[in-house]
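Colleagues,

For the teaching module next term, I've prepared a clean inverse folding example: a structure given as tokens, and then the sequence designed for it. I'd like students to try predicting residues themselves before seeing the answer, so please don't circulate the second half yet.
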């Protein structure tokens, strides 16, 4: 297995609830886990995320919901409709419904269709599907 150069590790309040969300609803796979410490390494395509039950090892301050304030994790997928279908089947709330956005990169625009969802601890996940490039 090749590890990405940047892999977020999210502290979670309930490891079983988080695994259920990421694996059962979103479709991540567990690459490996250390159940004795409440840790799981999750993979979806090229995306890698680590989740670990709250502990005092990495805590820099008091955690309260929503965790991860001020950050959203963009996760690129081939087709956001599959994820939306899974979330809606579970009646899981969507934070921001799907929208198309075009972001300027120099003299071109990069298009994405994206939506946002909060995980069980309030981490903001932005799922993004590429729409391509267009001229300015």
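(Answer key — instructors only)
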């Amino acid at each position: 297995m090749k590890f990405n150069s940047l892999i977020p590790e999210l502290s979670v309040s309930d490891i079983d609830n988080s695994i259920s969300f990421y694996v059962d609803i979103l479709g991540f796979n567990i690459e490996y886990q250390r159940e004795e410490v409440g840790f799981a390494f999750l993979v979806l395509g090229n995306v890698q995320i680590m989740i670990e039950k709250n502990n005092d090892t990495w805590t820099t301050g008091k955690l309260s919901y929503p965790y991860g304030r001020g950050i959203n994790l963009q996760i690129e997928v081939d087709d956001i409709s599959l994820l939306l279908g899974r979330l809606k089947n579970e009646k899981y709330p969507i934070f921001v419904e799907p929208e198309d956005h075009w972001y300027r990169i120099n003299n071109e625009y990069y298009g994405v269709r994206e939506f946002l969802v909060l995980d069980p601890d309030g981490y903001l996940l932005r799922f993004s599907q590429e729409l391509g490039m267009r001229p300015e």
